[in-house]
Amino acid sequence: MDFQFTEEHLMIQKAARDFAVNELLPGVIERDEHQKFPAEQIKKLGELGFLGMMVSPKYGGAGLDTISYVLAMEEISKVDASASVVMSVNNSLVCWGLETFGTEEQKQKYLVPLASGQIIGAFMLSEPEAGSDATSQRTIAEDKGDHYLVNGTKNWITNGGSASVYLVMAQTHPEKGSKGINALIIEKDTPGITIGPKENKLGIRGSDTHSVMFQDVKVPKENRIGEDGFGFKFAMKTLAGGRIGIASQALGIASGAFELALKYSKERKAFGKEISQHQAIQFKLADMATKIEAARLLCLKAAWEKDQHLDYTLSGSMAKVFASETAMWVATEAVQVHGGYGYVKEYHVERLMRDAKITQIYEGTSEIQRIVISRSILS
Ligand code: CAA
Ligand code: FAD
């Protein structure tokens, strides 16, 4: 048991913190207000190696461990959760899925540019009628011998407008249920793809979320990931790690809101003293700090298990449900600590509160995490 970070971990954490403060903080309020995708900042994140953090240097990645990834996700999310969701999807859904299950040709062609941030990717499982109930895929990938013909609609796709490469789950053998689903690599420019309008969201408004329609889209057989019918397992295994990324995003939102509340409580005076001298505020800060520390330890434990090649499905779901509920609670309390000032944009906490909500919904809602956890502890 060792609670000490390495020099390298601390260096990555500092690099992410510096990037967040210097490159993301200026303009974060405007990007949120105008739903502007942080294109320039994402490009720089890629150049610094933050979009392929855990990918082997052989494929253009930074070759770091999952602990480093958690630390970096926390720092970026403290400031801009719209940027960190792009980072999370590219690292833990797209790059990890390709590196772990892709063929050498797929890795050379797609993983190399994705890991170095030259392009970004999207992960497409959800549909208008298949969100939590993810096995009910309506998108069809009809087997045509040397290619698949894809028809259907994917919903709520993060990076839907800006990604160049999509990992798409689609049903090939409906009679086989979840065992009939395939995971396909589809290039954005393939004829037959239509991207819907950008969703107008409550939070993470800088990220671009779109529906994506496929009409007779021809996908070569060599773009299938894994064996025929491996697609649902691919999605579940990939999401198990993705949930560590979103848990770390939630952790960052919580710790960002806490840092702002702590600072403000020492500046604002009421009834002749700093509000931090009132016990009601002190107890809020104490509860915030305690929940954040517990969330951080759950994230790091799941990351450590992943790095040790242990099964991290349970710890990842525990980290996600706890960290996301912590983020929502802490951010709401941070608004309260700020009083009326917390309700306006300049003080940042109202945005963090809006951003926190999504962490309880995507990559499996809190209810779905509890299903995964209860199935595991009851089995
Ligand atoms: N690893 C490997 N295989 C797994 C698995 C895992 N973690 N979880 C399930 N499976 C396998 C099962 O073993 C089963 O295979 P067998 O039949 O061979 O045993 C198969 O998958 C079907 O599993 P279930 O019978 O458990 O399926 P279910 O219908 O009960 O659903 C579920 C399980 C956990 C609820 C799943 O549907 C789920 O996770 N739903 C949530 C979907 C989700 O998280 N979507 C996120 C979309 S991406 C996103 O959101 C990105 C973003 O925002 C940024
Ligand atoms: P539903 O599944 O319809 O759920 C509605 C409610 O019912 C929820 O509270 C849910 O927890 C509850 N519920 C459902 N089933 C059960 C059950 N068995 N027991 C108890 N409660 C249950 N998806 C992608 O594939 N790729 C992406 O990049 C992506 N990005 C997203 C970005 C944003 C901003 C958003 C909003 C969503 C994104 N999603 C993405 C989709 C996201 O994963 C789904 O919204 C989520 O999985 C929930 O599915 P749903 O919206 O269909 O809700």
Automatic annotation (TrEMBL):
Its cofactor is FAD. Residues 6-118 form the Acyl-CoA dehydrogenase/oxidase N-terminal domain. Residues 122-217 form the Acyl-CoA oxidase/dehydrogenase middle domain. Its EC number is 1.3.8.10. The keyword Amino-acid biosynthesis does not apply. Keywords: FAD, Flavoprotein, Oxidoreductase. GO terms for molecular function: acyl-CoA dehydrogenase activity; flavin adenine dinucleotide binding. CDD domains: SCAD_SBCAD. Belongs to the acyl-CoA dehydrogenase family. Transmembrane segments: none annotated. InterPro entries: Acyl-CoA_DH_CS, Acyl-CoA_Oxase/DH_mid-dom, Acyl-CoA_Oxase/DH_mid-dom_sf, AcylCo_DH-like_C, AcylCo_DH/oxidase_C, AcylCoA_DH/ox_N, AcylCoA_DH/ox_N_sf, AcylCoA_DH/oxidase_NM_dom_sf. Coiled coil: none annotated. PANTHER family: ACYL-COA DEHYDROGENASE, ISOVALERYL-COA DEHYDROGENASE, MITOCHONDRIAL-RELATED. It is an enzyme of class 1 (oxidoreductase). The lineage of its organism: Bacteria, Pseudomonadati, Bacteroidota, Chitinophagia, Chitinophagales. It comes from Chitinophaga terrae (ex Kim and Jung 2007). This is Cyclohex-1-ene-1-carbonyl-CoA dehydrogenase. Residues 231-378 form the Acyl-CoA dehydrogenase/oxidase C-terminal domain. Pfam families: Acyl-CoA_dh_1 (PF00441), Acyl-CoA_dh_M (PF02770), Acyl-CoA_dh_N (PF02771).
